[in-house]
Amino acid sequence: MRFAFTDEQLELAAAVRDLLAKECPPDVVRAAWSNADGRANQVWSALAEMGALAVMSDEARGGFGMTEVDLVLLLEESGRCALPEPIVDTALVAAPEGWVDGDASACVISPESPFGVWADTATVIVSIAADGVRVVPRSEAGLTARDSVDGARRLFSVELPEVAPVAPVAAAARVFRRGALGTAAQLVGLADRMVSMTVEYAREREQFGVKIGTFQAVKHHLANARTALEFARPLVYRAAATMSTDDPDAATHVSMAKVRAGDAAAQASRVALQCHGAIGYTTEYDLHLFMKRAWALERAWGDTSWHRRAVGRAIL
Amino acid sequence: MAAGPPYNLTPRQVDCSTLARLVPMDLTFSPAEETFRAEVRAWLATNVADPPLPSGDTAEGFAAHLEWERKLFDARYAVVSWPAEFGGRDASLWEWLIFEEEYWLAGAPQRVTQNGIFLLAPTIFEFGTPDQQQRILRSMASGAQTWCQGWSEPNAGSDLAGITSRAVRDDAGGGWRITGQKTWTTRGAFCTHLFGLFKTDLDAPRHNGMTYLLVDLAQPGITVRPVERLDGDDGFAEVFFDDAFVPDDMVLGGVNEGWSIAMATTGSERGLTLRSPGRFLATARRLIDLAREQVAVADTATRDRIVDAWIDAEAYRWQTFATVTDIVDGKAAGAASSMVKLFWSELDVRLHEIALDLLGPHAELVDGELAAWMKGYQFALSGPIYAGTNEIQRNVVAERVLGLPRR
Ligand SMILES: Cc1cc2nc3c(=O)[nH]c(=O)nc-3n(C[C@H](O)[C@H](O)[C@H](O)COP(=O)(O)OP(=O)(O)OC[C@H]3O[C@@H](n4cnc5c(N)ncnc54)[C@H](O)[C@@H]3O)c2cc1C
User: Does residue B114 have its Cβ closer than 6 Å to ligand 1?
Assistant: First the structure.
């Protein structure tokens, strides 16, 4: 038993974290709300260049042939900065199957996540259904724009031509699990970001002549949110590990991870907003960028109760 | 503009000092560990009493539990992680966790020796003299000496530094004379010994001037009064000291250095050693069995609560595994143990609440087979109070994990 990342994995995550801190600060996320495609192309290119999108791709196709365990921390980092890019759909779902390469991006839809996110700039649309997976060039899909509460997430209703699945049912289940896992990792990153930015704020803001972080009510809210995060994270990492070894229980593990990561992010959002007061209730302040991403991801790739029921079917 | 790639994914040079951390994540136990698990399971299957022993928080039950402890000791299962010379097996932390999982899953008895073996012993291993280790550890493991914890006093609960029980020097006797009162002492009415903090320098500032003493309870000058707990057992005691004697060789660590030594013990109580994940996994498993076999759970709300509790029991297990990996790598757990305490204590309450809700009108029964749930519920309710209340733990998490200002 060894439940830790290797130094190499941690270094890679730290490198991605540094890159994202520099290239994807809140201003870049904010810019994605109002630019043409909702994305941060420069960040995407940098990630592609460093190999982050090809971590799980086949070596034969120029990838690194690594596993979910190698990628999960990177996805957590992408959540921490609210990266406005389809990194889960691309690096964890489509690239390992060989459906995209290089800096091309994928947009994945399923009955649980029917809207295509950043579909208009994707190279391919991947559709996961009960009978298998269809992969269709974007140009062949009919797209109708919808607006998300998270202005960077450009949503589309997608209509696909009648085509046969390219991958069987088993692959559909696997890639769906991967998408849910990656989303759980992003939620953990978002929760961490919201807790830490609120801690920073509570150390600075003064009322009644003292820092608000000295009030026990504020402390306890934050302690609870931090504790929820502490116990969500290992479930995400465990699911990554059992996915990578094709453990027969991996699906249940992913669902557990998604439930707790979603709950931790929901709690962190509430606590963060409450402890900020009205400043957190503005769009001028950065908190909403993270909060709204969390609201969307909590319900994407199977919402929390969908996954809770899935665990229930496995254990009850 | 993005600079060049800050990292490239080609393998790097191996640095031998970090060898352990180059080993990839591996969530399986070794064949030797699995063999150990099988041995423990088989031994428990033939030795755990059925029906269960009476509560160890009563005089009669305590005696029955001591017999069980003796049996564990003779099979060298009482303290698996201790060195063989003190009755252990030199088991690794992983093997200890495996033992615990099997122990609780088998429905084996509560450990009436726990405050000794899990709370005092780690402190004796760390701070005790070789002579103290020789005299105390083996007897503690076999149950010949039973230890209770004397921290709390009537006016010092959360604010432990506010204790007033004191010890004064008895040079002629070669030791200390203690006076004062401890309270809420778990199983104090049945134990042979008490470990606790006493003021040895009344003029010293708070947190100073306290000494960690090991007290033999069978002597004149000590009166123990059992106090009935919420569940009706005499699980608490008040212990009164009136010029009782503690020889010098029963001072643990330095005189006036008791506070920092005591803090080492409370760290064990919050975290890993006292409440291993095996306990909650076993309770969660029993809850699932209850739901599957005895009561039909039709409504999704109740199903969801059971699922959530199971997920939390699993989360606790994996958080522990991450912590143990860190410990094996030489990293300290630190203030994170406060999050651990918050988590297990609240999980335990939830597990029992759900069971009582499943039982409905049968929940109030304190006779028959299902009574264990009401009993367990009442004990679970104390989890958020003892070992540092959960409000205190939240303060610790806020200040020491998150770095919020003290005041
Ligand atoms: C089942 C059980 C077994 C026990 N066994 C032992 C034992 O073996 N040995 C032993 O020494 N003690 C034992 N105790 C006592 C236990 O350590 C104390 O109950 C605990 O430290 C709290 O102290 P108190 O009960 O005096 O409550 P108080 O400290 O009076 O607290 C009352 C309430 O005020 C809150 N409060 C106090 N200070 C603060 C603060 N700074 N911030 C926020 N809230 C605060 C508390 O959280 C609590 O809700 C046991 C208790 C129980 C319930």
Answer: no
